[in-house]
Amino acid sequence: SCSTSSSAEMVRCLRGKTESEILLATLKMDFTRLPLGGEEQHVILFPAVVDGQFFPKTPRELLAEKNFNNIPYILGVNDDDFGWMLLQLFQFPDFTKGLDRETMNLLLRSAEQFTAVAPQDLPLVVNEYFQDLQDPVQLRDQFLALLRDATFLASTIVTARHHRDAGNPTYVYELQHCLSEHSSFRPDFVKVDHGDEIAFVFGKPFFMDNATEEDKMLSKVIMKYWANFARSGNPNG
């Protein structure tokens, strides 16, 4: 292993490792599994690093200073962006049937890398999202809403407002319909998951035997919006 006491020493050590040693080390590491409770914490997400060159300041500061290109901007979210795929990727516990209060509190303490909620602020979050809820299904749904809001929705709204306030044409969407075929392999509580919009952008419903007319109609609309935006900077034409 390499010492992490200083970045210079760590880089020197890593440069001395062979390809086989590095590959073997990665196989032993559990990069994506969410560490729970008293488990040793490890980095799952690698956020932007303020290095003074590529990022002279934090993204939030750069946005506040309107230090970005003045161009039309379209951005959006899906209504259940943390509903299924990311839960599987990061190996969250299975709460298909719901979530009890104890597990919810454990997950909240363990998911700081996703929520960016410091431990001292957790009571505020619990009061906002969960209050006195005890029903497992409601607890699960609110927990997923929190993950979606913290990971996708909040940053989307903040970014959109800064671009709008800078005088740039800014368009925000929320996708609320997913392909009908998804119901065959996802639990029924999952709505429009992360990445579900891609199928509509590239016209997947027209290459499927089981696509509904609603799937096809929405795909046409989305492709039109995207094409309009690419041509003119305005999704409406």
UniProtKB/TrEMBL annotation:
<dbReference type="InterPro" id="IPR002018">
    <property type="entry name" value="CarbesteraseB"/>
</dbReference>
<dbReference type="Pfam" id="PF00135">
    <property type="entry name" value="COesterase"/>
</dbReference>
<feature type="domain" description="Carboxylesterase type B">
    <location>
        <begin position="2"/>
        <end position="237"/>
    </location>
</feature>
<dbReference type="GO" id="GO:0005615">
    <property type="term" value="C:extracellular space"/>
</dbReference>
<dbReference type="GO" id="GO:0019695">
    <property type="term" value="P:choline metabolic process"/>
</dbReference>
<dbReference type="InterPro" id="IPR029058">
    <property type="entry name" value="AB_hydrolase_fold"/>
</dbReference>
<dbReference type="GO" id="GO:0003990">
    <property type="term" value="F:acetylcholinesterase activity"/>
</dbReference>
<protein>
    <recommendedName>
        <fullName>Carboxylesterase type B domain-containing protein</fullName>
    </recommendedName>
</protein>
<dbReference type="GO" id="GO:0005886">
    <property type="term" value="C:plasma membrane"/>
</dbReference>
<keyword id="KW-0378">Hydrolase</keyword>
<dbReference type="GO" id="GO:0006581">
    <property type="term" value="P:acetylcholine catabolic process"/>
</dbReference>
<keyword id="KW-0719">Serine esterase</keyword>
<dbReference type="InterPro" id="IPR050654">
    <property type="entry name" value="AChE-related_enzymes"/>
</dbReference>
<comment type="similarity">
    <text>Belongs to the type-B carboxylesterase/lipase family.</text>
</comment>
